[in-house]
Amino acid sequence: MKELLTLTVNGRLREDAVAGNALLIDYLRDTLGLTGTKQGCDGGECGACTVLVDGEPRLACSTLAHGVAGRHIETIEGLSTAGNLSRLQRAFHEHLGAQCGFCTPGMIMAADALLRRNPQPSRDEIRAALAGNLCRCTGYVKILDSVEAAARCGDVAGVAA
Amino acid sequence: MGTLSEFRLMRAASAADAVRLRAEFPASRFIAGGTDLLPNMRRGLVGAEVLIDLGGVGEIREMRRDGDTLRIGAGVTLATLAADPPVVAHLPALAQAALAVAGPTHRRAATLGGNLCLDTRCQYYNQSEDWRRGNDFCMKRSGDVCRVAPKSSRCYAAFSGDVAPALLALGAEVELLGPQGLRRLPLADFYVDDGMNWLALGPDELLVAVTVPLVSGRASAYEKIRVRGAIDFPLAGVAVALRRDGELIGELRVACTGVSSRPEFIAGLDELVGKPLDDAALATMERHLKRGIQPMETTLVSVPYRRRATPALAKRLVRRLWDEARQGA
What is the ipTM metric for this complex? Predict the structure, then answer.
């Protein structure tokens, strides 16, 4: 049974008729066509579906769409502005933080949340914040390098880019 | 993994409202963080016609200190517990256990109550529907036989929450709200050694809070072994609470997880009180511990390893707390 869901996605207020049993990832990918958020595993084990809810990382595959009614959702699509990558995205590009790229949206969203609350994290703090995000190419060193590089640039989030 | 089955999502306005809805819709489940329930529903392990969302129930997210007791609402997230200064300072085992659950993103959503009520786990249960059908299912879901102990009449799925052993070692109680009102239970009595019915929670009861005594001079810690260091359920987990009186043991409480269908408080350690912590004492603790646990083939990691690792973890924690207590004294 569909019910009206009101929430903000990437800065835009939305009202959509969404089934009560829809997961946030299904709403984002299927209803809104925001396919940047990836479904990697079968239930909360890989972090590929990480999005931000009121600035905090959440697993879209283990969250009901109606469970985040009224909240602010940010996905990877919300980070670039006017066609320009955010500094974190650019850092992943320049420091080869993406290999096959499937885990990248989740990595970047989790890292973005970290840099917002801790603009100059240590390498261990980056590791801890990304502990739930799996990279099956195992490109972790470059991912850590990318987040460190973005932190050195000073700028934080896509919103501020 | 399939999509979710059809269900109605209802929002509870208060704990009393949640309990009322639970009684009104027998085929319902409570949902808080959803990090355990939703993946299990998607795998067809759990069914529900109605989900009662506890996200709007503010009263279960409160923490307050009443004299020598800390009362923690069941809706407090594990991330909050792990970083809460009074918890870190006075109940380190609880903070460490909360921090040991899953990954950082799970902990922001997952709640204390959810972790205490965590579904039991088994390598024959936490699988896709196709996998389980290919293995003729198991008694915990859709089948008749316990794949781990085929001759057994019960299910041996392992309780795998990290927070429960810490709270057992710390002597916590739970507050359960039902249609008849509130009842309190020692946490140890909240669990049953049965993989299918592991909670002494009534069908229309809600776990609303946990109370933990703050005992001065008591040190505590939690540690677990797991396959993936960054994010995984425990193959075995041990919590220790210890008070040192000079060169003698003032108090020693140990509880384990992942090695039985319920978190196990290890009985019999009172006999060590008033004795020095020497090799004989550690051997006595190991004997009680091995008697109290029953790891089965619920994980791919072998039973003998988990049987040996559990007392090894306990001894390591006890020695560490013992040495730290001397330095602090």
Answer: 0.92
